[in-house]
Amino acid sequence: MPLFDTRVAAVLVRLDRNPFHHGTLGAARSLGRAGVPVHLVAGDPAEPVARSRYVRRCHARPPGDGLAAVRHALARVADTLAGDPAVLLPLDDATAVALDELRREPDGPARRFLLPDQPPGLAARVADKAALAATCHRLGVPHPRTLVPADADEAAAMAAALGLPVVAKWSRPWLLTPGAGLRSTVLARSTRQVRDLYARVVQAGSPLLLQRYLPASRDGDWFFHAYCDSAGACGVAATGRKVRSWPDGAGLTAVGTWAPNPAVERLARDLITALGYRGVADLDFRRDPDTGTYHLLDFNPRPGAQFRLFADPWGLDVVRALHLDLTGRPVPDLVRSYGRRFAVENYAALSLLASPRRRVRPYGPSGGLETAWYAADDPAPAFAMARAWAAHLARRAWAAPRRAWRAEADTRAPIPAQPTVRRADSRPDTHAAGHCTAPADPADPPASSTPVSPTRPNSPTGLASPVNPPTPSPRR
């Protein structure tokens, strides 16, 4: 295993308030086991990850959201480090986008930390769902057909044109207000549900996108994780298959396995090279069962929560590669360990209850299993998670009858007339709004990786001129 510069701390930053974010714990353990001092800026100093023996210090998340919160947190941590260098690692899209802006401020606090030399504004362009769809269309990368409605009537017409069910996404899910009852992605099964979603576009803070639903299929969901160094090389990169997810068939990875997929890897590497991307990346793909083509669903400019699946026999992963590269140490190529598995205990249990059928292993013999929460050398976070998870499920069960009653009342209520929202321009980041049927919850997974598809935001009907064609062929 390569030697790390343990004089350089790592600062993990996450604006997401989800206390069950297992990717944060994975990053703390990965770097802490290598001897790197780990500082954590997260939603709550009492959350399970803060119990890890590998967290040197936990800093409370500052009040507010976005740029101001990250700026305040970085200034405070930099003062704590007394001028010593530290590597910054964002663990959610909101933080990644904020850091991309802060690093361009001449006297901003991000200048006191080590970050990949990312092209300006690229993190926001790949994290924004509408901008990503436009980028895929421009570069010839397959992406589900996505439409951007201008009003509730157009949203209903688009949903019918795409075919129900349809995936409804907020273009910039990190702008959603916590506690507002909005989910980043919803599988809408009726035009009424689509109208209800559009009714909250202003509250959501970004456009509502309607995307063609690619049905789940056996061996159809894949992901690609990589670290791209300062020279653009991606020697630490791998593909994995989603074996179980939560919600089942459309959500985050509950069980995954390391397996080769040359088609997905080629698509991902070509896109990363075309963009000039630097740093850690997590890309999600789904195969269209009708054509066999893999479509890009999401591009996350930070580690995926299941990144520890791709830890090679020497312990190298994308997070360790980031620290080695930014501290001037050589980064070896990843040694492939096909058959290795990764399971998130709480979500895997829910997936198993919802769909108990056996899932076939996709490739080769078992290469070992790593669990997200329990580790023999660091058991405290798993016990803390189990207590918090039990309390969370109890609260959900207690509130279920009231939620069901409200949903039934909503179905009986008349639909109010919605004002037409017109765009000032045709850029992909023009604002729109929507309403999700299920209330948001800290333990619910973030964005579903269910497929979505775009049209040009200011097309006259919204039904023509799609942002990306149904099945484009990738450019080489």
From TrEMBL:
Keywords linked to the UniProt accession: ATP-binding, Nucleotide-binding
Q: Where is the ATP-grasp domain?
A: 133-327
Signal peptide residue numbers: none
Q: Where is this region: Disordered?
A: 406-476
As one GO molecular function, the record gives: metal ion binding
Compositional bias of kind Basic and acidic residues? 422-432
Q: Which domain of life is it from?
A: Bacteria
Q: Where are the transmembrane segments?
A: none
Q: Which residue ranges have biased composition labelled Low complexity? A: 437-455
User: Which Gene3D superfamilies does the UniProt entry name for this protein?
Assistant: ATP-grasp fold, B domain
Q: Where is the composition biased (Pro residues)?
A: 467-476
Identification of the protein by name? ATP-grasp domain-containing protein
